[in-house]
Write a structure and sequence with these properties.
Low-confidence stretches: none
Structural class: mainly alpha
Mean pLDDT: 80
Shape: elongated
Radius of gyration: 21 Å
Number of strands: 2
Strand order of the largest sheet: 1-2
Strand content: under 5%
Order of helices and strands: HEHEHHHHHH
Length: 170
């Protein structure tokens, strides 16, 4: 598409737009990025700048890394301009913004479309095990401790959603 740090692969663009949920990633913004005619309401934001002298430029990145999905975020034009404030919108802040946006959308999709896992767990929970006895007690691990231990904050909402099924399986 473009040159160097703006040479996005088709795979990167498809992934970026698909995981955006067609919505600006800025917290609280619900602006749609693409309509049936065009994608003019969207800006591809580089978390670490595309060019030297840009906001949050990292001289140790290659152009390929700059144009890769992990360094890109979809924003509406207004919020793309707002994130130019490098004191307020650091690399870590923008990465967290991207993670939270994608996790929120994934959580919403799971709630709207129950997975086969959810259906299987419910089916198993409804089975009666006559004559079954438990020889040993299982150790129940606090999900919050497990999340913190494994540093999986990004999927915290998913784990919280499915933790209710843990006892059904037991």
């Amino acid at each position: 598409m473009g040159k160097g740090s703006r040479n996005y692969t088709d795979k990167t663009l498809k992934r970026l737009f698909a995981l955006s949920g067609n919505q600006c990633a800025f917290p609280g913004c619900s602006k749609k990025l693409v309509n049936s005619n065009n994608a003019l309401s969207s800006n591809i934001c580089h978390i670490e700048a595309a060019n030297e002298g840009g906001e949050r430029y990292n001289p140790f990145m290659t152009d390929g890394e700059r144009a890769d999905y992990d360094n890109l975020l979809l924003l509406c034009p207004q919020h793309h301009d707002e994130t130019n404030d490098i004191e307020k919108y650091t690399v870590n802040v923008l990465r967290e913004m991207k993670r939270n946006h994608e996790s929120k959308l994934l959580y919403e999709k799971i709630n709207n479309n129950p997975s086969m896992l959810k259906n299987v767990i419910n089916a198993i929970a409804n089975i009666t095990f006559d004559g079954f006895y438990e020889e040993e007690s299982l150790i129940v691990i606090n999900p919050k401790r497990k999340i913190k231990y494994n540093s999986i904050k990004r999927n915290c909402t998913l784990i919280e959603e499915y933790k209710v099924y843990y006892q059904k399986i037991n």
